Amino acid sequence: QVQLVESGGGLVQAGGSLRLSCAASGRIFSINAMGWYRQAPGKQRELVAVITSGGSTNYGDSVKGRFTISRDNAKNTVYLQMNSLKPEDTAVYYCKSIISWSTYWGQGTQVTVSS
Q: What are the tens digits of pLDDT across the range 29-78?
């Protein structure tokens, strides 16, 4: 069994920064990719950023240039550095990991950006 534990969400003013973390634990043989998605009220879940085992990254258009995804392979942890936050970034942020080609989701962490 694999668990994903997210941390780092909270309330921040527009223009501020937050750093999210997601640590994977359990029976982990290989992590193929880790990433972040978000879902705002009344909207569909959307890609924020993803990083593959090879280090390739992909970002949603709305966060390019503001958010940076990184990973610590030794800790099975992925990070999302969020800068220049906007009120429209307000959402529940979910960690997603593909481990040994199975998909796992975290429980979500709330990010609220006030104007």
A: 888 899 999 999 999 999 999 999 899 999 999 999 999 999 998 999 99
Distance of alpha carbon 10 from alpha carbon 111, whole angstroms: 5
- The 3-state DSSP composition of the chain as helix, strand, coil percent (nearest 5) reads 10, 60, 30
Cβ-based neighbour number of residue 58 at 10 Å: 14
Cα separation, 87 vs 95, whole angstroms = 20
Element (H, E) at 52: strand 46-52
Residue range 21-42, pLDDT digits in tens: 999 999 888 888 999 999 999 9
Token readout for 71 is 């990973």
